[in-house]
Amino acid sequence: MTTAGTPGQGPLAGVRVVELAGIGPGPFAAMLLADLGADVVRVDRPGGPGLAIDPAYDVTNRNKRSVLVDLKSPDGPARVLGLAARADILVEGYRPGVAERLGVGPADCHARNPRLVYGRMTGWGQEGPLAHRAGHDIAYIALTGTLGMIGRPDEPPAVPANLLGDYAGGALYLVVGVLAALHHARATGTGQVVDAAIVDGTAHLSAMIHGMLAAGGWQDRRAANLLDGGCPYYGTYETADGRYMAVGALEPQFYAEFLGLLGGLEDLADARKDWTRWDELRERVAARFKARTRDEWTAVFEGSDACVAPVLSLGEAPRHPHLAARATFTDHGGITQPAPAPRFSATPTSVRTAPAQPGAHTTEVAHDWAVPPLLPAPDPTGHPHDENPRDVGGSRDAHDKDTV
Q1: Are 135 and 109 spatial neighbours (Cβ–Cβ below 8 Å)?
Q2: Whose CA is closest to 126, among 177, 88, 67?
Q3: Beta pairing class for 16-20 and 192-197
């Protein structure tokens, strides 16, 4: 459905999304939909689940609007169902069964809007022995085998922040799922439920590796393969100033250019495919990189096809000439942040608004979406409605007993 008053620009302009507030992959998925132009209304609860930061800095809530609804109040579920009746997509991150218990589950929403795409973001999924258990990104990726792939063989597996599970295996798969289901709903008039589990998405990311494993081209142990740090010309090396360079000179021509610019390793040209010489190659390459600083090596490899790049910090990345030229990062409201991605030739996207403050758009959204006032009915006792944090509003298992 499209509405002239719906804010947004980009390919999803006119698409309406209800996000039941949480933390982690759900908000990130909703941010991506908002970045693409959807009118995303985040339903915050009084007090909110929140991160341990000022909401003004939570960029995963940029390009959204926020309303306050207490789902534990008598009229709370009806207010959410009113929004769902006007929406194209709803995203929630509760544990299985919680949305149903609150009266805003798929059956409740589809009774009001049969075309609705109902996206469910969880770690373990809606079914299975662990479906109701607590968890976080690190546990989800541990069971899929992907965490065990990362790091040195003589050290514990390296933790990739929460990028691999929450965002890559979780949020991005949820977005793909709800957009595919939206296409189906517009073609058939029938919505459906999208079960996006981090364990499923993260396992799916390793499809190529499983194929290589079956073909005998991948060893099931860390740092023993082409792409996991086992290969001496695909990895990172410390420089003289304690910083690092990243090397990805896989193809023969790139490898040759890499050795030539590194200098002093001409006798190792044939070591590329000789695994028995990889330890020697790694030690010699490491010694060369330790001879100069990161910036000096960056200058050496500048303009080459050796596939070598400096390892930058989060603070340094926005200032890199290439990323600056592409405006990969943007400044909005005093916050440097990644710009929306990907890019579109006909329907460009942008950071339109700062992170939505909880409840800041309650009256505005009710008007724009043509729903009854979203402000909660006054409590005759004069006390706020009882919020049980075990039931409502979070999105990560370890934070709320009954939320996702």
Answers
A1: no
A2: 177
A3: unpaired
- Residue 98 dihedral angles phi and psi, to the nearest 5°: -70, -45
Residues 318, 269: Cα–Cα separation, whole Å:
36
From the CB of residue 141, how many other CB atoms can be counted at a distance below 10 Å?
Answer: 31
- Cite the active site residues: 136, 166
If you write DSSP's letter for every residue of 263-288 in order, what string do you get?
A: -S-GGGGGGSS-GGGHHHHHHHHHHH
Write out the E strands in 56-205.
64-68, 89-92, 117-122, 192-197
Token pair recorded at residue 84: 């769902």
Percent of the chain with pLDDT over 70: 90
**Lowest mean pLDDT, pick from 4-18, 97-111, 198-212, 246-260:** 4-18
Interacting residues of 146 by C-beta distance below 8 A, sequence separation 6+: 164, 169, 202, 203, 205, 206
**Per-residue pLDDT reduced to its tens digit, 244-301:** 999 999 999 999 999 999 999 999 999 999 999 999 999 999 999 999 999 999 999 9
Q: pTM for this one?
A: 0.92
Q: What is the DSSP string of 189-201?
A: S--EEEEEEHHHH
Amino acid making up residue 203: A
Rounded Cα–Cα distance for residues 128 and 137 (Å): 17
Q: Are 33 and 87 in contact (CB under 8 A)?
A: no
The model's pLDDT over 310-352, given as tens digits with 9 standing for 90+, comes to 999 999 999 999 999 999 999 999 999 999 999 999 999 999 9
Element (H, E) at 321: helix 321-326
